[in-house]
Design brief:
With about 150 residues, the protein is α+β, with helices and mostly antiparallel strands. It has two helices and seven strands, in the order αβββαββββ. β2 and β3 form a beta hairpin. The longest helix has 14 residues. It is rod-shaped and about 105 Å long. The model has no long low-confidence stretch (mean pLDDT about 90).
């Protein structure tokens, strides 16, 4: 199973958002240049499922800061709609995530919600995925076993 880490998902989100030509931040929200997007991980739930498999549920909020601090609702909604359209893959909202080994996973973006709070646009969504957990025991399989029987006569 291809393992995906949070940083792989954030790297893919950054790649998709960068196509809009607007600055992206994800660490220090105090030093931003408007307009920009800010990627925030709201919730990260891991639930052990079975041997070497876990369910990961990640909730994101991508915040759009418009040019003016006072805000412009039309500009904000337009930026959120453009962001939403960038996730479209053959009629679905998909995030293509590539891990450090170059392996790809296609993750469905669900529960999308767009709204404006305090003159900032919010694009909220969830991603659920099953991922590998731990490291399976690595052992050599048993080779052929040759048995010799001695016949004893009675």
């Amino acid at each position: 199973m291809i393992k995906i880490k949070y940083l792989d998902i954030r790297r893919s989100l950054t790649s998709v958002i960068s196509k809009l030509g607007i600055d992206i931040f994800y660490e220090n929200i105090t030093e931003i240049n408007r307009p920009c997007f800010y990627i925030e991980l709201v919730d990260y739930l891991k639930e052990f499922d079975s041997n070497y498999r876990e369910l990961k549920q990640l909730d994101f909020d991508i915040i759009y800061f418009p040019r003016d601090k006072e805000g412009n609702n039309s500009e904000t909604i337009e930026a959120l709609e453009e962001l939403d359209n960038n996730f479209e893959v053959e009629g679905n909202k998909i995030l293509v995530v590539t891990n450090k080994q170059g392996e790809k996973r296609f993750l469905l973006i669900k529960d999308v919600r767009m709204h404006i709070v305090d003159n900032r646009g919010h694009y909220e969504f969830s991603i659920d995925l099953y991922d590998g957990y731990g490291k399976p025991i690595d052992y050599e399989l048993m080779q052929e076993l040759h048995l010799n029987f001695n016949k004893e006569e009675k």
